[in-house]
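Subject line: Sequence and fold of a protein, written as structure tokens
Body of memo: The sequence and its backbone structure tokens, given next.
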Amino acid sequence: MVPEPGEFLSLLTAEEVAALRAAGHVRKWERGTTVIQEGDTSDWVIVLLEGRVKVSSHTDSGTEVVLAVRGPGGILGELSAIDGSPRSATVTALEPVAGLVVRDFATFLEGHGRIAVLLMQYVSFRLRDSDRKRIEYGAYDTTGRVATRLLELAERYGEQTSAGVRVALPLSQDELAGWTGSSREAVSKALRMLRDRGLIETGRRRVIIHDIEGLRQRAR
């Protein structure tokens, strides 16, 4: 398992990773399985080892809002484990997932001060990222937001090919709509516009970006 750059596990030393593993146990979930349920209360966290998940919440009208996509190395449920509040979002496996479950996480942090500091820095980064996305919702049109999310996926999961940067898209169009604060119809129109401009090519749960710089310009 190689954690994504910048994700929580990538910040730890080999000794700290070993200590974390010793404090938990590995569990696996199938694609589509609920890993964490919004509203639950518990004191454990999950550190992703394999696979990707979506973090989402539902509005009063039942609309799903996708808050983030997390991959290997990411930590889930840390806020509730620390402050005891109910889970603020639901986490769903987008593909087969393996994770390290660490119970009584607050006690673990008490004995590992450097890890606690790194966790605070990690959480601070995620909060700043959430603020940036909220600004995008007001400043960008749907096509700009879709382009921005595709660039994010390409940076994190992209594979360079002769045709361009290939991204195995873990999200359906409905989920992509929830991640960009748009309707499914608006996202479909945005993808069609980006295809017509020759910036991307789409297929079933995949996107090939032919022109990264052109997509960045459209995102802006």
Observations:
- The mean pLDDT is 91.
- The chain has two domains: 8-138, 141-219.
